[in-house]
Amino acid sequence: MSRHSGQSHPHTVEGVDPHLNVQVFRPEHDAGLPPVLLIHGFSSSIELNWVNTGWVRELQRAGRWAIAMDLPGHGSSEAPADMDSYSPGKIRADLLQAVTDAGARPIQDGDRSSGLDVVGYSLGGRIGWEIAGTQRGLVRRVVLGGPSHNDPLAEFDVVAAQQYLADGTPIADASTAALLKMAQLVPSNNIFAFLTLIEAAKVEPFDPTDAVPHQDILLVAGAEDPRSASLDMLASLVNGAGGHAETVLVPGRNHTNTTTSRAFKDAALEFLAR
Protein backbone atom coordinates (compact mmCIF):
# COMPACT_ATOMS: atom_id res chain seq x y z
CA MET A 1 0.00 0.00 0.00
CA SER A 2 1.47 3.39 -0.97
CA ARG A 3 1.83 6.26 1.48
CA HIS A 4 -1.14 8.00 -0.10
CA SER A 5 -3.43 4.97 -0.06
CA GLY A 6 -6.37 4.96 2.31
CA GLN A 7 -7.30 2.28 4.75
CA SER A 8 -10.82 0.87 4.56
CA HIS A 9 -12.68 1.74 7.71
CA PRO A 10 -15.60 -0.25 9.18
CA HIS A 11 -18.87 1.63 8.95
CA THR A 12 -22.19 0.47 10.34
CA VAL A 13 -25.47 2.24 11.01
CA GLU A 14 -27.45 0.80 13.91
CA GLY A 15 -25.41 -2.39 13.55
CA VAL A 16 -26.13 -2.76 9.83
CA ASP A 17 -23.41 -2.45 7.18
CA PRO A 18 -24.66 -0.09 4.42
CA HIS A 19 -21.77 -1.27 2.18
CA LEU A 20 -20.32 2.19 1.70
CA ASN A 21 -16.63 2.54 0.96
CA VAL A 22 -15.06 4.64 3.72
CA GLN A 23 -11.34 5.43 3.50
CA VAL A 24 -9.09 7.00 6.14
CA PHE A 25 -5.83 8.62 5.00
CA ARG A 26 -3.16 9.20 7.68
CA PRO A 27 -0.08 11.44 7.36
CA GLU A 28 3.39 10.38 8.39
CA HIS A 29 3.60 13.34 10.77
CA ASP A 30 0.35 14.62 12.32
CA ALA A 31 -0.03 18.41 12.53
CA GLY A 32 -2.35 18.09 15.53
CA LEU A 33 -5.33 19.59 13.69
CA PRO A 34 -8.82 18.13 13.15
CA PRO A 35 -9.52 15.45 10.56
CA VAL A 36 -10.72 16.62 7.15
CA LEU A 37 -13.91 15.15 5.69
CA LEU A 38 -13.69 14.96 1.88
CA ILE A 39 -17.05 14.83 0.03
CA HIS A 40 -16.86 14.18 -3.70
CA GLY A 41 -19.19 15.35 -6.45
CA PHE A 42 -21.88 13.73 -8.57
CA SER A 43 -20.62 10.84 -10.76
CA SER A 44 -17.20 11.05 -9.11
CA SER A 45 -15.50 9.08 -6.31
CA ILE A 46 -12.77 9.25 -3.67
CA GLU A 47 -10.27 8.10 -6.27
CA LEU A 48 -11.30 10.52 -9.02
CA ASN A 49 -12.04 13.59 -6.90
CA TRP A 50 -9.41 13.41 -4.16
CA VAL A 51 -6.65 10.86 -4.86
CA ASN A 52 -5.93 11.27 -8.57
CA THR A 53 -6.10 15.08 -8.32
CA GLY A 54 -3.49 15.22 -5.55
CA TRP A 55 -5.68 16.41 -2.69
CA VAL A 56 -4.91 13.47 -0.42
CA ARG A 57 -1.19 13.78 -1.10
CA GLU A 58 -1.16 17.50 -0.28
CA LEU A 59 -3.24 17.07 2.87
CA GLN A 60 -0.86 14.37 4.09
CA ARG A 61 2.16 16.55 3.33
CA ALA A 62 0.54 19.24 5.48
CA GLY A 63 0.16 16.74 8.33
CA ARG A 64 -3.60 16.44 7.98
CA TRP A 65 -5.56 13.19 8.17
CA ALA A 66 -8.63 12.76 6.04
CA ILE A 67 -11.83 10.74 5.98
CA ALA A 68 -13.65 10.11 2.70
CA MET A 69 -16.66 8.08 1.62
CA ASP A 70 -17.81 7.01 -1.82
CA LEU A 71 -21.43 8.13 -2.04
CA PRO A 72 -24.05 5.42 -2.68
CA GLY A 73 -23.70 4.00 -6.18
CA HIS A 74 -20.35 5.76 -6.66
CA GLY A 75 -16.81 4.40 -6.66
CA SER A 76 -16.51 1.24 -4.57
CA SER A 77 -19.74 1.74 -2.63
CA GLU A 78 -22.68 -0.50 -3.43
CA ALA A 79 -25.75 0.76 -5.28
CA PRO A 80 -28.81 0.15 -3.09
CA ALA A 81 -32.12 -0.59 -4.78
CA ASP A 82 -34.16 1.71 -2.52
CA MET A 83 -34.32 5.45 -3.21
CA ASP A 84 -34.14 6.43 0.47
CA SER A 85 -30.50 5.34 0.63
CA TYR A 86 -29.63 8.09 -1.88
CA SER A 87 -31.45 10.93 -0.14
CA PRO A 88 -29.29 13.91 0.92
CA GLY A 89 -30.45 13.45 4.51
CA LYS A 90 -29.41 9.78 4.55
CA ILE A 91 -26.07 10.61 2.95
CA ARG A 92 -25.41 13.26 5.60
CA ALA A 93 -26.24 10.75 8.32
CA ASP A 94 -23.90 8.15 6.79
CA LEU A 95 -21.09 10.70 6.56
CA LEU A 96 -21.55 11.80 10.17
CA GLN A 97 -21.53 8.18 11.32
CA ALA A 98 -18.40 7.53 9.25
CA VAL A 99 -16.45 10.43 10.77
CA THR A 100 -17.57 9.43 14.26
CA ASP A 101 -16.45 5.84 13.64
CA ALA A 102 -13.09 7.15 12.40
CA GLY A 103 -12.51 9.18 15.56
CA ALA A 104 -13.72 12.73 14.88
CA ARG A 105 -14.74 14.49 18.12
CA PRO A 106 -16.87 17.57 18.88
CA ILE A 107 -15.04 20.89 19.18
CA GLN A 108 -13.46 21.41 22.60
CA ASP A 109 -12.02 24.75 23.72
CA GLY A 110 -8.25 24.61 23.90
CA ASP A 111 -7.96 21.39 21.88
CA ARG A 112 -6.83 22.22 18.33
CA SER A 113 -7.20 18.59 17.24
CA SER A 114 -10.90 18.49 18.07
CA GLY A 115 -13.73 19.11 15.64
CA LEU A 116 -13.91 18.42 11.93
CA ASP A 117 -12.93 20.38 8.84
CA VAL A 118 -15.03 19.78 5.72
CA VAL A 119 -14.02 19.98 2.06
CA GLY A 120 -16.72 19.34 -0.54
CA TYR A 121 -16.93 19.74 -4.29
CA SER A 122 -20.06 20.26 -6.43
CA LEU A 123 -22.71 17.91 -4.98
CA GLY A 124 -20.27 17.48 -2.11
CA GLY A 125 -20.46 21.24 -1.66
CA ARG A 126 -24.20 21.06 -1.14
CA ILE A 127 -23.82 18.26 1.40
CA GLY A 128 -20.92 20.03 3.10
CA TRP A 129 -22.96 23.24 3.42
CA GLU A 130 -25.80 21.32 5.08
CA ILE A 131 -23.50 19.42 7.44
CA ALA A 132 -21.80 22.65 8.50
CA GLY A 133 -25.14 24.39 8.98
CA THR A 134 -26.55 21.65 11.20
CA GLN A 135 -23.40 20.53 13.07
CA ARG A 136 -22.01 23.70 14.64
CA GLY A 137 -20.58 21.80 17.60
CA LEU A 138 -18.58 19.50 15.32
CA VAL A 139 -17.55 21.41 12.20
CA ARG A 140 -14.71 23.92 12.57
CA ARG A 141 -13.83 25.17 9.06
CA VAL A 142 -15.35 24.55 5.64
CA VAL A 143 -14.05 24.67 2.06
CA LEU A 144 -16.62 24.31 -0.72
CA GLY A 145 -15.65 24.13 -4.39
CA GLY A 146 -18.04 24.63 -7.30
CA PRO A 147 -21.01 25.39 -5.02
CA SER A 148 -24.37 26.57 -6.27
CA HIS A 149 -27.12 28.60 -4.61
CA ASN A 150 -29.74 26.56 -6.48
CA ASP A 151 -30.03 22.81 -7.07
CA PRO A 152 -28.88 21.60 -10.50
CA LEU A 153 -30.09 18.05 -9.71
CA ALA A 154 -33.61 19.31 -8.93
CA GLU A 155 -33.82 20.65 -12.49
CA PHE A 156 -32.62 17.39 -14.08
CA ASP A 157 -35.14 15.87 -16.52
CA VAL A 158 -35.14 12.21 -15.43
CA VAL A 159 -37.75 11.14 -17.99
CA ALA A 160 -35.79 12.66 -20.87
CA ALA A 161 -32.61 10.97 -19.61
CA GLN A 162 -34.33 7.61 -19.39
CA GLN A 163 -35.74 8.02 -22.91
CA TYR A 164 -32.29 8.89 -24.24
CA LEU A 165 -30.77 5.83 -22.60
CA ALA A 166 -33.56 3.64 -23.97
CA ASP A 167 -33.60 4.72 -27.61
CA GLY A 168 -31.29 7.69 -28.11
CA THR A 169 -33.99 10.38 -28.19
CA PRO A 170 -32.13 13.72 -27.94
CA ILE A 171 -32.37 15.57 -24.62
CA ALA A 172 -33.71 19.11 -25.04
CA ASP A 173 -32.52 20.45 -21.68
CA ALA A 174 -28.83 21.38 -21.92
CA SER A 175 -28.15 20.96 -18.19
CA THR A 176 -29.67 17.46 -18.17
CA ALA A 177 -27.68 16.46 -21.24
CA ALA A 178 -24.43 17.76 -19.73
CA LEU A 179 -24.92 15.97 -16.40
CA LEU A 180 -25.77 12.69 -18.14
CA LYS A 181 -22.76 13.01 -20.44
CA MET A 182 -20.54 13.58 -17.40
CA ALA A 183 -21.97 10.49 -15.70
CA GLN A 184 -21.24 8.38 -18.78
CA LEU A 185 -17.57 9.41 -19.05
CA VAL A 186 -16.52 6.64 -16.64
CA PRO A 187 -17.56 3.25 -18.13
CA SER A 188 -17.93 1.65 -14.69
CA ASN A 189 -20.42 4.27 -13.46
CA ASN A 190 -23.84 2.93 -12.46
CA ILE A 191 -26.24 5.17 -14.38
CA PHE A 192 -29.28 3.61 -12.65
CA ALA A 193 -27.83 4.56 -9.27
CA PHE A 194 -27.13 8.10 -10.44
CA LEU A 195 -30.68 8.58 -11.70
CA THR A 196 -31.99 7.22 -8.40
CA LEU A 197 -29.83 9.73 -6.50
CA ILE A 198 -31.22 12.53 -8.65
CA GLU A 199 -34.79 11.44 -7.96
CA ALA A 200 -34.01 11.36 -4.23
CA ALA A 201 -32.46 14.83 -4.41
CA LYS A 202 -35.64 16.14 -6.08
CA VAL A 203 -37.58 15.08 -2.97
CA GLU A 204 -35.14 17.08 -0.79
CA PRO A 205 -34.15 20.05 -3.00
CA PHE A 206 -31.31 22.26 -1.81
CA ASP A 207 -32.17 25.59 -0.21
CA PRO A 208 -29.07 27.27 1.24
CA THR A 209 -31.20 29.42 3.54
CA ASP A 210 -32.53 26.37 5.43
CA ALA A 211 -29.31 25.81 7.40
CA VAL A 212 -26.72 28.52 6.90
CA PRO A 213 -23.21 27.75 8.20
CA HIS A 214 -21.95 30.00 10.99
CA GLN A 215 -18.34 28.83 10.65
CA ASP A 216 -15.43 30.31 8.68
CA ILE A 217 -15.96 29.14 5.11
CA LEU A 218 -13.95 29.34 1.89
CA LEU A 219 -15.96 29.31 -1.34
CA VAL A 220 -14.04 28.47 -4.51
CA ALA A 221 -14.99 28.19 -8.17
CA GLY A 222 -13.29 28.22 -11.53
CA ALA A 223 -13.58 31.57 -13.27
CA GLU A 224 -15.07 29.76 -16.30
CA ASP A 225 -17.61 27.87 -14.16
CA PRO A 226 -21.16 29.34 -14.37
CA ARG A 227 -21.55 28.41 -10.69
CA SER A 228 -19.00 31.08 -9.81
CA ALA A 229 -21.96 33.48 -9.92
CA SER A 230 -23.22 31.84 -6.71
CA LEU A 231 -20.16 32.67 -4.60
CA ASP A 232 -21.16 36.18 -3.54
CA MET A 233 -24.73 35.14 -2.66
CA LEU A 234 -23.57 32.22 -0.53
CA ALA A 235 -20.90 34.37 1.13
CA SER A 236 -23.53 36.98 1.97
CA LEU A 237 -25.67 34.33 3.66
CA VAL A 238 -22.75 33.13 5.80
CA ASN A 239 -21.68 36.64 6.77
CA GLY A 240 -25.26 37.58 7.57
CA ALA A 241 -25.56 34.59 9.89
CA GLY A 242 -22.50 35.60 11.89
CA GLY A 243 -19.92 33.48 10.09
CA HIS A 244 -17.02 34.62 7.96
CA ALA A 245 -16.85 33.80 4.26
CA GLU A 246 -14.00 34.23 1.79
CA THR A 247 -14.16 33.64 -1.96
CA VAL A 248 -11.57 32.56 -4.52
CA LEU A 249 -11.92 32.49 -8.31
CA VAL A 250 -9.47 30.16 -10.05
CA PRO A 251 -8.42 31.69 -13.41
CA GLY A 252 -8.95 29.62 -16.54
CA ARG A 253 -10.73 26.76 -14.78
CA ASN A 254 -14.24 25.36 -15.29
CA HIS A 255 -16.44 23.11 -13.17
CA THR A 256 -14.80 19.94 -14.44
CA ASN A 257 -11.14 20.77 -13.88
CA THR A 258 -11.03 23.10 -10.87
CA THR A 259 -10.25 20.22 -8.48
CA THR A 260 -6.88 19.69 -10.19
CA SER A 261 -5.87 23.32 -9.67
CA ARG A 262 -2.80 24.05 -7.53
CA ALA A 263 -4.32 27.44 -6.64
CA PHE A 264 -7.41 25.71 -5.22
CA LYS A 265 -5.35 23.31 -3.11
CA ASP A 266 -3.03 26.02 -1.83
CA ALA A 267 -5.92 28.29 -0.85
CA ALA A 268 -7.72 25.44 0.91
CA LEU A 269 -4.65 24.22 2.83
CA GLU A 270 -3.79 27.74 4.00
CA PHE A 271 -7.38 28.37 5.08
CA LEU A 272 -7.66 25.06 6.95
CA ALA A 273 -4.35 25.61 8.77
CA ARG A 274 -5.58 28.77 10.54
UniProtKB/TrEMBL annotation:
Q: State if Transit peptide is listed as a keyword.
A: no
Q: Which GO terms describe its molecular function?
A: hydrolase activity
Which residue range or ranges hold the AB hydrolase-1 domain? 34-162
Q: Hydrolase among the record's keywords? A: yes
Per UniProt, the keywords (alphabetical) are: Hydrolase
Q: Spell out the Gene3D superfamilies in the cross-references.
A: alpha/beta hydrolase (3.40.50.1820)
Q: Specify the superkingdom.
A: Bacteria
UniProt similarity note = Belongs to the AB hydrolase superfamily. FUS2 hydrolase family.
| PANTHER family named in the record | DIENELACTONE HYDROLASE DOMAIN-CONTAINING PROTEIN-RELATED
Q: What is this protein called?
A: Alpha/beta fold hydrolase
Which species does the entry assign this protein to?
Arthrobacter horti
